[in-house]
Amino acid sequence: MSMKQSFWKFFFLIWLVCISNASHALEVIEILGGKASQIPVAVIPFKDNNAQKSMQLMHEVITNDLNRSGLFSSIDISGVSDYPIDEREVNFSNWAALQSQFIVVGKIDAIGRSNSQMQVTWSLIDIYKEKTVLSVAIKGQPSQYRVIAHRIADTIYEKLTGSKGVFDTNIAFVKKLGKEKYSLFIADYDGHNPRAIVNSRYSIISPRWSPNGKKIAYVSFEKKKPVIYVQDIETGKRTLLANFRGNNSAPAWSPDSKKLAIVLTYSANSQIYTIDADGKNIKQLMRTRSINTEPAWSPNGKEIYFSSDRAGSAQIYKVDVDTNEVVRVTFEGNNNVSPSLSPDGKLLLFLNQDNGSYRVAIQNLLSNQMLKLTNGPDDESPIFSPNGHMVLFTYKDYGKVSKIGTVSINGLKMTPIDVGSETILESTWGPLSD
Length: 434
Description:
6-stranded mixed sheet; mainly beta; disordered N terminus; 4-stranded antiparallel sheet
């Protein structure tokens, strides 16, 4: 089998994992790879009866969201002069000639007292079948136009793929501001609307969002060594979770948000422990002379994946939380570190080091086939999106400044996230919105 055939066979297996529960989707679109298999969509500028220029950007936000996923390709509409706002105005032959399978149309109306609110009425239209698939009206404040656009993109994504979209979610990241200032920010998934929730003169690393969306655990060096704090996002209250002898690092939440796996150098090499979210009931998971670090829970809470040097080089293993039975998971490459599990537990995300480069890779745990998603050479801290279809990671900008970006799990679309020119240390992705 050729490398190209192996690539698309692997991706086909990944896509089957993604759509296995998509019986309610409009169509089951089996993406076998390449741009030809992406879903072609044209997002038309919405007719803005408010005459507010910022509202005209909504179609750009929707287009960028769909493109970032790697499952859609946007249609160039620069040559189109007459934009439809509903099915009655659509010339299906013309849009079919542009090779658009779907188009998104809509309008924005001012509503409420003094026209202080707006209503966005939009439709998803199937060009091939010449019919409206979905028509929705959303109300909100003009200042919420980006949130509304993200929710429209989420609705389109779910309708066409059968899986939840992640465009109306948040990320958190640590930014280094000068020599002695570090800030933990929360922002929209695409980097817009950032706000700092922690500011410190000491380094902050390893932020991890709790699955219930209420807290973020992180490592701080403010006590002259690494210790673990848990920050309540709504109240701003923070709690010192782990300040044991030696280093305290690598927090990872259990799926129910009630426990964390952490790494301590309490007596010798780095070892993995579990601890309740209130700091009680600490328990060592296994006892070895090897380094065991970077824990990541399986979605069912029964296993913890981790990296260890017990075989000589760093590889990824899993341990049964109840029996402590350990199984090796990765075998390809010189080193494999930083594991993360997809929400369905079928895909393993990690950093693969080979020929001197660290690149984001993904392994199908059903077939054990591996696919490298990025080019490296200095990628770090990969983590799945909450639907498992994209990856957030850190990379070096021309080998110098660390940035963050996303890559689709088919490897077709890598997109930077613009959060400024400062160095980004690490990042994490929040859960799906209610």
